[in-house]
Automatic annotation (TrEMBL):
It comes from Linum tenue. This is H(+)-transporting two-sector ATPase. Its EC number is 7.1.2.2. It is found in: Membrane. GO terms for biological process: proton motive force-driven mitochondrial ATP synthesis. Residues 1-53 form the ATPase F1/V1/A1 complex alpha/beta subunit nucleotide-binding domain.
Length: 54
């Protein structure tokens, strides 16, 4: 993935938000797959480091 860390973080959080919407508002069953959780966690670490929160 060549996207910036912010974009990687945003994709994961957007997917989770959409899943919650379908679960809570539409009262549908939701199954969310995350292909590579390591990249999401790595992006979160990079964003935290850039913000000085580590």
């Amino acid at each position: 993935m060549n996207e910036p860390s912010r974009a990687c973080m945003r994709v994961g959080l957007t997917a989770l938000t959409m899943a919650k919407y379908f679960r809570d508002v539409n009262e549908q069953d939701v199954l969310l797959f995350i292909d590579n959780i390591f990249r999401f966690v790595q992006a979160g670490s990079e964003v935290s480091a850039l913000l000085g929160e580590c």
